[in-house]
Amino acid sequence: MDLITAPTTNATGNEVRVRFCPSPTGTPHVGLIRTALFNWAYARKTGGTFIFRIEDTDASRDSEESYEQLVEALRWLGLDWDEGIDVGGPHEPYRQSQRGEVYQDVIQKLKAAGHLYESYLNADEIKERNLAAGRDPQMGYDNSERELSDSERERYIAEGREPALRLRVPDQDISFTDLVRGEITFPKGSFPDFVLVRPGGQPLYTLVNPVDDALMGITHVLRGEDLLSSTPRQIVLYNAMYDIGVAKFIPQFGHLPFVMGEGNKKLSKRNPESNLFLHRDRGFIPEGLLNYLALLGWSIAADRDIFTLEEMKQSFAIGSVNPNPARFDQKKADAINSAHIRLLSDADFANRVLPYLQSAGLITSDPTAKRAGNHQHRRTATKRAHDRALRVGWHARLLLSDSAEVEFEQAAIESLPENAKEVVSAALEVLKPLQDFGAQSIQAALNAELVERLELKPRIAFGPVRVAISGRRVTPPLFESMEILGKDLSLGRLEAFLIRPLR
RNA sequence: GGCCCCAUCGUUUAGCGGCCUAGGACGCUGCCCUCUCACGGCAGUAGCGCGGGUUCAAAUCCCGCUGGGGUCACCA
């Protein structure tokens, strides 16, 4: 039970070593990615090293698919790493599932130095002991096996038991200076001796995470707030590792605010908004998503919130991260994303639209999918879609689809005036005889009929037509859209709208 | 329940003792631009949880309360 004597690192500049160390369970969560982003930004700002390690110590929950998604996520976003998965480095391997020997070695040393001791009591027995002693069972383990006698140990072994290994926690207050929250102190007795190794020798996260951080020389641990209360435990472990020469210092810690969902709860993995790839599928570009994620706890300036990754890496400061929990606001995220889309060149935008058209089945080698396959069409359509794109792929898909069937957005339906069908019907009649189905000619015809003859306000006149054509309230320029779609498709969509039940 | 964290418009964020009759952004509302929605421009809406201190002066510092969250696993 040595008191904490290990020094805390004061590494700066290119001595900084940070890591992103997810466990591959499920699909990448935006909160997790925010953590990756901040670590990345800190490394890039300081000129330090960004390490990507995988914590796959729970074979029952980890999956290879999830692992691949994690790698894909960072690659897609452009968060490059200097050491770790795929790229290698001086501390290979970077997957914990392949580091078993490393941990066994540390466990032996820790045990030999008396920092770990054998614990034979199971959860039920611990609870019973607390109850018998009048202690609140929620207090957890009572450290009663610290000085087990040989005879007691032999009796357990005779019963066929195998011990878990617990760390001796010193009886002292534990303080550290959190990079985002300042000084934090946990009073002595805040937690009991905890398990680092399962019966049978399987090391737990409580051991392997600090062991790898120590071995890999991690200087700054930036992670979610949910790990805040395990920090004093880790400091105790670091101290033990320092004692046996495995750790050279205690890293600095910074706990990033939670990413909240609806209500006052953490954005759960069940919530679709938490799924990084769902945002990508909906048409988020990396620039937009990264910018929004950065805003979840950090800001570049008081009067500005659109910025690039490059700008972030030049001005990121962990000390200016806001400790408040941040709510994931889809509307704001959409707005940030669309601002970035508008910053794209037309050519760049067109390239980014391509994958969406492909996955929508609009670009194939099938000769009957002629419209989307037509380069001229595609260029015009994507260019037109660019101006108002909230999300990539959204509008272009509509303009290039060969279908008269349109998916209607709820907001679009709600925006319709009472006489929507009459308006569309009138539009249909005046468009039918049109020889020249160019934007100008369409506009002239609709204007003469709806605005001048029927005296409708332009909003009332064109709104229903827009919705009928696109199913949406916001679209690329209406008349050009109709031209791109062509006469047959345009009229087909108007007709389909007329026989569709509204509301 | 023990321990820890958090607390500025609906949301997010600026503010680190006087520059604050609290600024920006998203949202919302209105107007302008456009014979259309959007984009863009302009205007408006709305906030320092409560109570004590400290100070000439507090959104800003301290204490308490209240509220919210997290964590107490042989998960990570």
**Tell me, what's the shape?**
elongated
Radius of gyration, in Å, reads 30 Å
Instruction: Give the amount of beta strand, in percent.
Output: 5-15%
Strands of the biggest beta sheet: in what spatial order? Answer: 1-2-3
Mean pLDDT: 91
**Largest β sheet strand count, sense and barrel closure:** 3 strands, parallel
Could you name the ranges where pLDDT drops below 50 across 5 or more consecutive residues?
Answer: none
Helix content: 40-55%
**Beta strands, count:** 12
Number of helices: 21
End-to-end Cα distance: 71 Å
Q: By helix and strand content, what is the structural category?
A: mainly alpha
Features:
single chain; 503 residues; mainly alpha; three-stranded parallel β-sheet; three-stranded antiparallel β-sheet; 21 helices; 12 strands; RNA-binding
How does this model look, in words?
By secondary structure, the chain is mainly alpha-helical. Helix content is 46%, strand content 9%. It has 21 helices and 12 strands. It has helices spanning 30-46, 64-77, 100-112, 123-132, 150-158, 205-215, 231-243, 276-282, 286-295, 309-315, 330-343, 346-359, 370-373, 375-388, 394-400, 410-415, 420-431, 439-453, 458-470, 478-485, 487-498; strands spanning 17-20, 49-52, 83-84, 116-119, 164-167, 174-178, 182-186, 195-197, 220-224, 252-256, 259-260, 326-327. Strand 6 and strand 7 form a beta hairpin. The protein is elongated, with a radius of gyration of 30 Å. The protein binds one RNA strand of 76 nucleotides through strand 7, strand 8, helix 6, strand 12 and helix 11.
